[in-house]
Amino acid sequence: MARIVLATFGSYGDLNPFLALALELKRRGHDPVVATAEGYRGDVEGRGVGFAPVRPDLDRGDLALFTRALDRVKGPEVIIREIMMPRVRESYADLERATAGADLLLSHSLTYAAPVLAEKKGLKWLSVVLQPLMFLSAEDPPVLAPAPWLAALRPLGPAVNRLVFRLVKLAGSRWGDPVRALRRELGLPRGADPLFDGQYSPHGTLALFSPLYGPPQLDWPEGTQACGFPFLDSDIGGKGLDPALEAFLDAGTPPVVFTLGSAAVMIAGDFFRNAAAAVQGHGVRAILLAGPSAKDLTDLPNGVEAFESAPYHDLFPRCAAVVHSGGIGTTAQVLRAGVPQLIVPFAHDQYDNAARVVRLGVGEALPERNPTGRELAATLSRLLDDDEIKQRAAQVGAAIRAENGVMVACDTIDALFL
To answer: Would you say the C-alpha torsion 358, 364, 370, 371 has a positive or negative sign?
Structure first.
């Protein structure tokens, strides 16, 4: 029916929502193409979805870059000024090829070339937002990782928070200069700030998170559709849980899962060792999803086992709680599973996600990225003994399972062609 290009960049938490949309669009008869870093080609084509490479690529072996990109204070500047902006012309050229003959473009918040291309080519497009943080709403002010102390201003109301975010935008205004230079070269007007208002499409924005988690606000961009979380529940080849993991789950009480998603896991430090120490002697079983370092986690206590990875949608509903770094994809999966969660944020939206989980009453958070085993044990013990959090987590889980973010988003897309 329509050729639809879905442009995204980042970790699996940024890829999987677009893949979920692409699969549903394909089911409806459209021709979706996911345009992203070359390293994700297998993940996309393995699901039978069209793929187009768009620079920059991701070098998952560059741990120094991962460390700087996940720095609480400097991380956003590293991603925007060192990774994305120097390659915005390359991104534009790649997207120009990918969108040849396209009817619609969907753009992730970091695909800064996409709005420029859509304007230059007269291409219909929708912006996509994966987490409430990106709206910088004064009505629902997010917690900013570089300055989490600003959260103390939240009770002062929209006027104060609007001023704070105006200063934030001013501080980052020069970061978008490469996009402005590209616009001049293409004969386009200066436009709005590409990092903020300029990322939103006049055709509309898809807010791909639950309205329960991030309620719609009056100061969101005009034409924003609150959709719900877009869960990707298909594994390539339908592998499901590892047999050894399945056997561990069947052998005792529901365990606590410790995971750092697909990005922070690369720089975990002592997190998983401290996690094992936290549950030792407390009668709690644990699963450590430690990525490639799982093979190095030997001599673990009884009742604790390490695995490289697991499909969250299969695992989390069978667990007592989940301890994680607070990426939006992991946070959404735990919310849907209806189990308590403990967030140990590293950077970016993770601090805001942690605050929202606490306000929802479904979990707790620790302020530091490398808590000791004792700190983890104390907080986890309170979490597992808190019947109110368990009950609230179950209620929120039921509400989110009743939503269907993928269907709402694709209905919104289809409406553009009616």
So the answer is: positive
Q: Pick the closest to residue 212 from 14, 402, 15, 351 (CA basis).
A: 402
* pLDDT score of 31 more than 80: yes
Q: Are the folds of 3-229+404-415 and 236-401 the same?
A: yes
Three-state DSSP state, 365:
strand
Tokens of residue 6, six digits = 């879905």
380: Cβ–Cβ under 8 A, 6 or more apart, which residues?
A: 256, 278, 279, 284, 321, 323, 342
* Arch. (CATH architecture) of 236-401: 3-Layer(aba) Sandwich (3.40)
Which helix (H) or strand (E) covers residue 129, if one does?
strand 125-129
pLDDT grade for 380, boundaries at 50, 70 and 90:
very high
CATH number corresponding to 3-229+404-415:
3.40.50.2000
Distance, in Å, from the CA atom of 247 to the CA atom of 128, rounded to the nearest integer, reads 39
Domain boundaries, the chain: 3-229+404-415, 236-401
Host H or E run for residue 312 = helix 312-315
Contact 44, 32 (CB under 8 A): no
Residue 135 exposed, middle or buried by CB count within 10 Å (0-12, 13-18, 19+) = buried
Give the chain's mean pLDDT. 94
281-295: pLDDT as tens digits: 788 999 999 998 899
The alpha carbon dihedral of 180, 186, 190, 196 has a sign of negative
For residue 380 the two structure tokens come to 């986890």
